[in-house]
Write a structure and sequence with these properties.
Layout lengths: L1 H16 L7 H23 L5 H20 L2 H22 L1
Length: 97
Amino acid sequence: MARRKNSTLRRKLLKALVKDRRLTPVERLANRLGYMGSAFIMISPYLLPYDNIGAYTYLAGAILMIPQTITLKAWNIFIININLLIGYGIYIWKAWM
């Protein structure tokens, strides 16, 4: 009996610590765009030798990740993405000149 009481008490405690909420449509869309952007960023280093396609996928990945970082208020990642956009933007600009 004491074991069952401890189990229910533990369950109630754990349930009180977890906030049960659903994502809004904007948050779901931002999440999916963020996953797609991070996938682009992950494959970009392997695509750099092929006519600098990797630089374009870096830019696309950074742009796709911006909505997720804004909805999550992850400003440190947002600043990293802006840095990535500026850096690879300059890289592509110099490649065109």
